[in-house]
Amino acid sequence: RGWLPDPVGGLIHFTPHSARAGLMLPLMVGMKSVTPSLSENSLGTMNRGSSSFWGARVLYNLVELKSAYMIEDVRDFQRQVEDGFAVNLTQYIELEYSSGTLAMSEAQVMLNDFVEGQVQKLWDFGDTLLMNYADGYCSGCGRGPRHLGYPQVWLDAAYPPQ
Fold this sequence. Notes:
The protein is mainly alpha-helical.
């Protein structure tokens, strides 16, 4: 992206925690600051609803409970979010900034606002998965039987042969 002005420097796509269950968030290399959802994260404080790291970490751990079923939902969610607005917004910022109609500070604010919206989608999606797959069920997930059952290893340990 050599045509971009030096302050932009190009774009990177960053995911907090895990690519398997996170979102690739676009950032300009030349940004002076990023949104608090990316910069204010702690392993010792969850910051529910505002931390990109914890949103991705919670989603990752939730998906691990019923990975074979949930991973399809996660991939659909990632494709929908990442292929949609991320591409359009970053292209818009590149175009407007390179033509001189958008100041770097405005582009940075727009991108940070966009990232905040994506972090909220991440948290909302985790809540949806939790509701859909709670208690071993597949309510509203659109695939598989309503009751997903228990792994055979668990059933054997819980109910040993007499």
